[in-house]
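Lab notebook page, bench 4
Experiment: in silico fold of construct C2
Operator: M.H.
Input chain length: 313 residues
Purpose: comparison with the prior construct
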Amino acid sequence: MDQALKNKFLPKNGTLRFFDVQDGMRLRVGHFPSEHEEKGAILLVSGHREFIEKYTEFIESLQARGFSVYAYDHRGQGLSGRILNNPLKSHNPDFGALVRDMNQIVEEIIKPALKNSPLYLIAHSMGGQIGFRHLHDYPGVFKRAILLVPFFDLVASSTRIAGLAKIYFKLANLLGFSSFFAPGQPRNRSMIDHKTAFNQLTHDRKRYNWAEQAIDQNPDLFIGGVTYGWLAGVIKSFKIIQSPGYVSAIKIPVLVLLAEEEFVVKNETTLHILKDAKNIKIETIASSRHEMYREIDPIRDRVLDKIVKFFVI
């Protein structure tokens, strides 16, 4: 059942519901109608360890520009169901489940409500990976798609170190450590290094603090670091995306926006994977850090302008 929103950290105009997907996992899904005559509907797919509240201002900006927005919390994060008994572990050994979750939301919640509106995709970071896989596995669903800094590879100081790390993660899973925190991962909120996080994610302190204040109000929104199982799952997903012919199977127009000041994902891999795709346009947002949707106004406004121009043709 849909519930009207009363939480100040959520968009003012919209409803939330909990939705059970095929394997019984419960997901939190939101619908935020356009403030004006609708230009189209957008499915917003968030990144790792994120939640709907973190996108409130971005959603409201899209509503004000004539779009209805659907957003949800991935399994294992936000207020959606967790996979392990310890709710602070980010554990997702099968990224294909995230793609199937996305598709079930589209088919059972969004499509029946669309009427004649076109459906667009905006997907950020890990959500960009999930969204990209959906474009491949379920063609013809979206009219156009925008990927914000898609997460297609691990960031490492060298290719050799990245390769060794992937072997180590695979070995840890084979030895039965799938549900264990990976080394250096925060096991609770007090371990988060906010100085480093802020410097990597955005230039806007007020927008950065918004998400922390939302967690203050509802600590259940927080999850900690990743497990070995999550790392094994994401590495397998990388291999799927980088397999021969994968990118060329995606036929709709796609706009990829990369951040110039990127510390979280590996832009070089994204550029390499997509370099020959004729229907995929890549642009770099000058001076932006990873979370361009909550950057300072001059950067954020440029991103919103590009979104509207790409979708409204």
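Observations: DSSP finds nine helices and nine strands in the chain. The chain has a mean pLDDT of 94.
Next step: discuss at group meeting.
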